[in-house]
Structures are given as C-alpha cells and as structure tokens.
Amino acid sequence: MSPTTLRFTALQRTLHWLMAICILAMLFIGVGMVSTIRPDSLSLVSAHKPLGILILVLALIRLVVRLRRGAPPLPEAMPQVMKLAAHLSHLAFYVLMIALPLLGWSMLSAADYPVVILGIQLPPIAPHSNGLHTLLWNAHRFLALCFFALIVVHLAAALFHGLIRRDGVFQTMAPWSASRSTLSTSTDLPRDSSVTRN
Q1: Does the pLDDT value for residue 194 go beyond 60?
Q2: pTM
Q3: What pLDDT is attached to residue 191?
Q4: Which residue has better confidence, 57 or 5?
C-alpha cells in the first residue's frame, strides 16, 4: 500500500490541525473568562462566541469528510485494548467538538443574550430561562473540563505512538510528509469507514 493510502487525506489533516489550534485557543480563552473579572474579560467573551461557532462548523465538515473518506487502519500489532481506547477517545472528540459549541449557544439563548457573528445575529436555540441558563452553564463548564482532560490524554497518546511505539499511527495525521518506510509499519487492511477515529 502506498504512503498516501496509509495516511489521512490532505483535507482531513488540514481540518485536524486547524481545529487543534482553534480548540486550544478556545480553552485558554475560556480559562481567562472564568478567572478574571477585569474589563479584559469582555474582549475574551467577544472572541469566545465566534470561535465556538467556527469550531462547530469545522467539526460538522470534518464529520462529513470522515464518513466519506474513512481512516487508515490501526496497526495489526496494536493491542486490542489500545485500539478500543483509540476508537472511544475519538468518538468522544467528535461528540464534544459538536456538543460544547451547541451548549454554549443554548446557554446564551437561555440568558436572552444575542449571538452575533460577522454582523449576523444567530437565532436562539433554547427558550429564555434563568434556571436553564444555570443548568447549561454548569454542563458547559463540566464538559469543557472533560475536553481538556481528553486533549491531554490525546497528546500523551500521540507522543507515545510517535516516540516510543513508532508504529506509524502518529504519521497518519502528521502535517509533514511521512516516509514510506515509516508508514510500512502499519497494516495493509482496507480503509476503515468507522467514525470513531479522528
């Protein structure tokens, strides 16, 4: 199998790294929002909303591309428990990448706070309710913490595959070109169409 078929497509890799930048920026902005009461927090809120909508749009595009193009197979030598962990973690990524922006949008709608993106006011997706706003705020905060933990685990797994196992898994999503010899460590199974890999 050629190196091209053993890697995610160029579009998939571009979406992955673009979203990685957006999500890390979003997490740091979110931490800044809840840790300061200075006027600076207003600018953080202004950046948080459009970035969240951008992540939602990119996540939906990425999911469609993922369903259409599939993913390279995991190495045959990888233990089944690691394969299961990879599938579950990437499923969690897709759920959180879509759920968190929707929760944020719903939270603002419940507070009767307009969401304006590029001069366009988005419609509310939840009824105005102080109680619902509090519930959604708590859910958004909790899932954001879960997302942060998942990202840490994901980074650790990427380093583990790239530096220790050297099994070609990291190279499937690496932004640079991988050598044929590196990619040949992966299996020659057909492309998997499951949505559980990133």
Answers
A1: no
A2: 0.82
A3: 42
A4: 57
Segment among 46-50, 68-72, 75-79 with least mean pLDDT: 46-50
Which fold, 3-181? Fumarate Reductase Cytochrome B subunit (1.20.950)
117: which strand partners?
120
For 120, the 3-state DSSP assignment is strand
Over the stretch 161-175, which tens digit does the pLDDT of each residue have? 989 988 888 889 988
Type of residue found at 92? A
Annotate 81-113 with b (16+ C-beta within 10 A) or e (fewer). ebbeebbebbebbbebbbbbbebbbbbbbbbee
Mean pLDDT calculated for residue range 123-127: 94
Angle between helices 10-35 and 40-69 (to 10 degrees): 150
Distance between CA atoms of 97 and 154, rounded to whole angstroms?
14
Q: How far apart, in whole angstroms, are the C-alpha atoms of residue 153 and residue 161?
A: 12
End-to-end CA distance of the chain: 21
Domain boundaries, the chain: 3-181
Q: 124 CB contacts (<8 Å, ≥6 apart)? A: 109, 112
